[in-house]
Specification:
InterPro entries: CdaR-like_regulators (IPR051448), PucR_C-HTH_dom (IPR025736), PucR_C-HTH_sf (IPR042070). This protein is an alpha+beta fold. It is built from 16 helices and 14 strands. 51% of the residues lie in helices and 18% in strands. A hairpin with a 5-residue loop joins strand 1 and strand 2.
């Protein structure tokens, strides 16, 4: 992998080649040699031919090779070649004579190479200065844009415009977050940027705080059709994403690498700042929701606090209590559970974690019968919530329309859940309002008393039904559900009104209930509710 600041050797100027060719020609003419060649030393230590005079097709042997020294270093070789005589290469005497004769010409070649080296150094310095000036100008423009509030997508688009090529912001998994490319002959698409192949991931594995940029050469097998300059976004010691600059036309240089690295650092800081702001907002909303449910401040204070975090408490809301099984963490389950519910009901959801439950606050959606729709949608996702909380149960409050409603709704949901849990934990979506009367006579610590009460009242009816095949228990249930109306009960059960009157008489006789008394009707209602909970099963 090449560094973006690698300096490549300069190719010789045309006039230098011509001058060295004249030197080789003059030496060949003086010696009558078959061929004279000037070689330059490459950075890797090998030799590259710069100039030559003579026929390369002629079978010749080197008779002399004089090193060319520039600033005390071997910069090349001046070589003299002679044809074989009777199939034998030149002898030592000829080689020594040729080397002595070639020495002045070697000095002239050294002068030419030295002058060329100085020219290259000067040109390289001028280019480096120009590149440094470009780097500073690009960084100045980028800094001015950031200071004026440019961030995210706009910053990526500005960088693409400044560099004149495609730029993409990728997340840590190499998925595109944003990309931009100026109009031009090279058409770029989202697929033009770094693919998430194993070879690309391996090439980027070393990027981090110590080394944040890399250049990836074209590699079709890795999905790289072009050269890529990659700068890592590093925040709090971890790589959170990448800035990918695609080479199109103009070769990317040190200025591009410096600006890309600077832009990546800015984007990383902006991302970290945005994450911290989001976390602060979440924490503030958590704090406000906790205060709202506890009712620990005045209504006016709660309204102001809620408005500060964007919570419209005067709009209709429902509380949803998701109990958490023993051994499960409400804190761990809060985020995924609230995401499931928000997706199901189609409205934003706030959540807090209590020791034994996740409590959600959901705004009622628009449209008809929103409460019923929310409960139906909750019922549809209980199987998804079960693995997160350990319970397939949700307790839903009455609608909260005022600040004062929230603490009462919270307490009602908590008490209803305690009652249900005390009877074994019936699964499903439960309406906390259905337990208002039951809350007056039972709580989660006195469920055994309630069960005995229900059995005392309903046991005789149930045993009579078992012995006679009758329907006294079911008739009582429907009679209460129909508001103690004979006609409505008969219609629901599909029997004659006199049949209902006969069964009610049997209920009074067998169960010892006077169904004309309100307290008897209330006792029967409570007994049936307790019986349903006790027989409802566990989550």
């Amino acid at each position: 992998m090449a560094s973006p600041t690698t300096v490549r050797p300069e190719p010789p100027q045309q006039d230098v080649t011509a001058e060295l060719t004249l030197v080789a020609r003059a030496l060949r003419a003086e010696l009558g040699a078959a061929r004279c060649v000037v070689y330059a030393r490459r950075p890797d230590g090998g030799l590259a031919r710069l100039a030559a005079d003579g026929d390369p097709r002629e079978c010749a042997h080197t008779s002399a090779a004089v090193p060319l020294l520039v600033e005390g270093e071997v910069a090349g070789v001046l070589e003299v070649e002679r044809p074989a005589v009777d199939g034998r290469p030149p002898d030592d005497t000829a080689a020594e004579r040729d080397a002595t004769a070639a020495a002045p010409y070697a000095g002239l070649a050294e002068t030419i190479l030295g002058r060329e080296r100085q020219a290259n150094v000067g040109a390289r310095q001028r280019r480096e200065l120009a590149e440094l000036g470009r780097t500073r100008e690009l960084q100045r423009r980028l800094s001015a844009a950031v200071a004026s509030g440019t961030e995210g997508d706009a910053l990526v688009a500005l960088l693409a415009s400044m560099l004149g090529t495609g730029v993409a912001l990728l997340d840590a998994a190499l998925h595109p977050v944003s990309w931009s490319a100026p109009e031009g002959p090279a058409t770029l698409h989202e697929s033009s940027f770094l693919p998430g192949t194993a070879r690309v991931r391996t090439a980027l594995a070393d990027l981090g705080p110590e080394h944040s940029t890399a250049v990836l050469p074209p590699d079709p097998d890795a999905g790289l059709m072009r050269r890529h300059l990659v700068a890592a976004l590093v925040g709090e010691g971890e790589v959170s994403g990448y800035l990918d600059v695609v080479e199109t036309g103009r070769r990317l240089g040190p200025a591009d690498a410096a600006v890309a690295e600077y832009a990546a650092a800015v984007l990383a800081l902006q991302s970290l700042s945005e994450t911290r702001r989001a976390q602060a907002v979440v924490q503030a909303r958590d704090d406000v929701l906790g205060e709202l449910l506890r009712g620990s401040r005045t209504p006016d204070d709660l309204r102001r606090m809620a408005a500060h975090v964007g919570l419209e408490v005067e709009r209709p809301h429902l509380l949803v209590r998701l109990p958490v099984a023993d051994g499960r963490s409400a804190r761990d389950g809060r985020a995924p559970a609230s995401a499931v519910v928000a997706d199901a009901v189609g409205v934003p959801v706030l959540a807090i974690a209590e020791p034994d439950a996740v409590v959600l606050l959901a705004g009622l959606p628009s449209g008809s019968a929103p409460e019923a729709r929310v409960k139906a949608q909750l019922g549809a996702v209980l199987d998804r919530l079960g693995p997160l909380t350990g319970c397939r149960r949700a307790v839903v409050s009455a609608v909260c329309r005022r600040v004062e409603d929230y603490p009462a709704a919270h307490a009602e949901c908590r008490d209803a859940e305690a009652i249900v849990a005390g009877f074994g934990g019936r699964p499903g979506v439960l309406d906390a309002a259905d337990f208002r009367t039951l809350r007056l006579v039972v709580n989660g610590e006195r469920t055994s008393v309630a069960v005995r009460f229900a059995e005392t009242l309903l046991g005789p009816l149930r045993r009579n039904d078992a012995e006679t095949g009758g329907d006294l228990t079911d008739t009582l249930r429907h009679y209460l559900a129909c508001g103690a109306q004979v006609r409505a009960t008969a219609k629901v059960l599909g029997v004659h009104e006199n049949t209902i009157r006969y069964r009610l008489g049997r209920i009074e006789h067998v169960g010892g209930l006077d169904l004309r008394r309100f307290d008897a009707l209330l006792a029967a209602q409570l007994a049936l509710q307790v019986d349903d909970l006790a027989r409802g099963g566990s989550a």
